[in-house]
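Suppose a colleague, Dr. K., hands you the sequence of a protein chain of 131 amino acids and asks what its three-dimensional shape might be. Before reaching for any lab equipment, you can write down a predicted structure in token form. Begin with the sequence itself:
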Amino acid sequence: MKLLPLTDHTPAGAEDRTVLALANDAAPLQAPLEGVTRIDLHFPKFTDGRAFSQAFLLRRRRGFAGEIRATGDVLADQLAQMERSGFDVAVLRADQDMATAQRVLASYPGYGVGRYQGDAVHVAPHFAEAA
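The predicted structure, expressed as tokens, is then:
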């Protein structure tokens, strides 16, 4: 998963039809995805996890292969679950330390390859893929 500081994030603009900003109460199964290469999913506060479900549905049910970016109230301790849910990029909240966030991700290397359980991107667990 790629991490971005808030200052490096360019929000979706109305003129750019390749980037879709999806509100956390929007239905991802009805979102128009033709020509979309990036979807920004917003966490209005860290306790609101609806964007996790949206990312999972976009990957598994819609088969979206483009970039899914977490924006808003994104904390370092949410990153492992974001990666498992299908996010590619996380835009960290301004007060989050990049080095800490990188350590958090490095602490869970098995999640990225679906080691013990499948996830949004790697459906089969690692031991099933090796068989």
